[in-house]
């Protein structure tokens, strides 16, 4: 069985289709979900991960240079995000935390929209309905409730779209995540709970808050779960496809624990060297998700110098576009804070806006005023 309700699953029993050395495993029954993944598709997954890592590096540099107030790096988690993100249909709806910029890339979110909040130019980044992805949730775990509610509504409407909630290991200790699983199981909602266990909830190691594998929690709610090697893009793609298919067929919710590693800081305001053993980081670097797929591509003659250069050039162009979008982003107007608070005009808000407009005008009219 791929979805389980047993006790802890040892690491060697993670669903893994691609070993760290780039060789394939026997598939454990999951290769059937990758029947369409040919050489071109493998190259596409590789390029996606290279681009997303380069975007992440550029955004981190922008923060260090004072162009962004904050940035949540995803370094090391590219396979979990790209593999699952590329499994989704356009009409599926994503509810994420602040770290799923790789999933946002898959959904077609623009570079300026990725940065808008972190530059402080807007309270949210993009129109959720344009890309079928809610703007990132900073309140830990709250998006699991949003995803479950959306999935319940989808089921009531008779549609076969699926909601996907992305969250980290730390969120599983929040009440919201557990309440979401109660409702999802009770109503058999078509939702996939995708937990990226990156080993650290800021400075708290996962072993302190989870005495058993995180995936073991879901069966207690009546939700089947699976643990997958989150640094294996093929395995991440396969298990997500399986969970989505189950949800579309009326099988209800699923829980995926993608075991990966946060190779960078929690955010650019964090210093992981204060709490993390550097040897641990070195161990996980040997399982780097991009290097792993690169080894497979080289073995199959798909990563020649021309393609490697092409992927790098694509990533560098993306980084340049990201930087340009950031430094040329228009500053918000003084009254823009009142826009998009409500979906339709609101009289009380309009009165507040007018009062603030008059206040600014009074400052401008005062001696030496510049407002």
TrEMBL record:
The signal peptide here is none
Q: Which Pfam families match?
A: E1_dh
GO molecular function terms attached to this record: magnesium ion binding; oxidoreductase activity, acting on the aldehyde or oxo group of donors, disulfide as acceptor
Q: Which GO terms describe its biological process?
A: branched-chain amino acid catabolic process
Its needed co-factors are: thiamine diphosphate
Q: Is Oxidoreductase among this UniProt entry's keywords?
A: yes
Keywords from the named record: Oxidoreductase, Pyruvate, Thiamine pyrophosphate
- Looking at the record's lineage, which domain of life comes first? Bacteria
Q: What is this protein called?
A: Pyruvate dehydrogenase E1 component subunit alpha
Task: Tell me which residues make up the Dehydrogenase E1 component domain.
Answer: 48-317
List the InterPro entries hit by this protein, alphabetically.
Answer: Alpha-ketoacid_DH_E1_comp, DH_E1, PdhA/BkdA, THDP-binding
* PANTHER family cross-referenced by the UniProt entry: 2-OXOISOVALERATE DEHYDROGENASE SUBUNIT ALPHA, MITOCHONDRIAL (PTHR43380:SF1)
Q: Output the NCBIfam families linked to this UniProt entry.
A: PDH_E1_alph_x
